[in-house]
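Service request form, structural biology core

Requester: graduate student, group of Dr. S.
Request type: structure prediction, single chain
Budget code: on file
Notes: please return the result as structure tokens.

Sequence provided:
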Amino acid sequence: MLDINQIMKIIPQRAPFLMIDKVESYVPGESCTAYKTVCINEPYFAGHFPGQPIMPGVLIVEALAQTGAVAILSLKENKGKNALFGRIDKLRFKKQVVPGDILKLEVKIIKKKGAIGVGEAMATVDGKIVAKGELTFAIVE
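Core staff response, request fulfilled:
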């Protein structure tokens, strides 16, 4: 398990844009399972939406991307690098994420060729799929 300080040693994101709280397990270059506890005091809830707070889908995707980044950037040869979006494919949102939810984020790296790779990503809450799709990334200096 990795705590927030250990996560920040692997990926470059910082508050308020660090979207994962802890890593349950990871295999460098292969997979990662992380969690995000969704709190009412998240700054985006002030406007999305007043009286009916819903976590923006794009931030769910970012949380998945950061989870995948832990997997790929934990490789020794990628230390100090960054993983950028190249493409988002087959992504579907199935359920809203609201304050109080604990988002489970799972990414499995399914393709790698040079600096480019693809991760199969899935976010769940209480075992129910929230979002699922493929994220293509590029490793950069």
